[in-house]
Amino acid sequence: MFSLKTAVLASLTYVGLAVAQANSPYCDAFSNICYQGYYDATYDITIGLILPPLTTGTTPNYTEFLGEIIAPVSYGWTGLSIGGTMAESLLFTVWPYNGQVMFGPRWTSGYVQPLPYAGPVITLLPDSVVNSTHIKASFRCQNCTTWEEGSLGYGDLSAFQLIAYVASDTTPVDDPSSVASNMTEHDIMNFFGMELSEAHTTTTTLYDSYLGPTVAKYGQCGGTSGNFKGPYTCAVGSTCTAIDPPYYYQCV
Ligand code: HEM
Ligand SMILES: *[C@@H]1O[C@H](CO)[C@@H](O)[C@H](O)[C@H]1NC(C)=O
Ligand SMILES: *[C@@H]1O[C@H](CO)[C@@H](O)[C@H](O)[C@H]1NC(C)=O
Ligand SMILES: *[C@@H]1O[C@H](CO)[C@@H](O)[C@H](O)[C@H]1NC(C)=O
Ligand SMILES: *[C@@H]1O[C@H](CO)[C@@H](O)[C@H](O)[C@H]1NC(C)=O
């Protein structure tokens, strides 16, 4: 809805930047997943998102997407807001720890410490990596198109969505070994505009290729614990269940 888009942009002081920076298509060289996203050459941050096909008729629309965040490994932490704001948006934070990708969803009601957020089912995909120059969180996010007080595209998965990303240039989080760690305010902040109508695959093949083998009963099928990268389809007779979201999901 145009009026909503205008209202959101007007509430930010970065209108010019937000309009000038728009999504474009690219394919990740390691995963071969093709995203709509943005590369910020100033801060060396890449954000990509891709959604399943838009459905029509009586089939419900998907409530998930695949995403990636790539940032310099030197940053203390990097954050993504798929609602474009800090408050009342689905946020993600990522930082490296001992070669691991520490990644998880967060939420906050205002300009105060965003805390880990239960609801989204996050699975790190196999191309997530920490190397000598960059950290990459490549992830599947299920139950991620609506959240407390908001939704992707303001409820229309083919609408315009302002996407924001932030980072702490040098200051690490309080406890890098814990994905639930608190942090101090970012000193890098930027935005791009995403036309969600351009960010849908035309087939479900993309998702099928990540389903992999099945997980035996009592095995981990999701969550950020242990740098989990799948597979996440439970064997027949068991269901992927939130044991300690967003960290641990188990086939029970
Ligand atoms: C203790 C931690 C944090 C504090 C104290 C904090 C504080 C703030 C403040 C004061 C602003 C307004 C800055 C301005 O307008 O110049 C802001 C903006 C923003 N913050 Fe944070 N922040 C924190 C963590 C985060 C995290 C973890 C994320 C995302 C993962 C995030 C995302 C944003 C975004 C997207 C904006 C710009 C859009 C908006 O103003 O809503 N922040 N933050
Ligand atoms: C799914 O999204 C498309 C495009 O926005 C819309 O036309 C369709 O009605 C939606 N379907 C449902 C079931 O919400
Ligand atoms: C989906 O996430 C919301 C929070 O955004 C949560 O309240 C809800 O319980 C979750 N639904 C499922 C089925 O996990
Ligand atoms: C490190 O990872 C980034 C992000 O995936 C990639 O672009 C870069 O080529 C990698 N560098 C090395 C030295 O492997
Ligand atoms: C993180 O901050 C919140 C609110 O500021 C606080 O309640 C919580 O105890 C802190 N968590 C840790 C692990 O310090």
UniProtKB/TrEMBL annotation:
TM ranges: none
The keyword Secreted is annotated on this UniProt entry: no
Coiled-coil positions: none
Any one Gene Ontology molecular-function term assigned to this protein's record: cellulose binding
Residues spanning the signal sequence: 1-20
Record key words, sorted: Signal
GO-annotated cellular components: extracellular region
Positions of the CBM1 domain: 213-252
Statement: the UniProt record of this protein carries the keyword Signal: yes
Domain of life: Eukaryota
PANTHER family according to UniProt: CELLOBIOSE DEHYDROGENASE CYTOCHROME DOMAIN-CONTAINING PROTEIN, DEHYDROGENASE, PUTATIVE (AFU_ORTHOLOGUE AFUA_8G05805)-RELATED
The protein, known as: Carbohydrate-binding module 1 protein
Species assigned in the record: Jaapia argillacea MUCL 33604
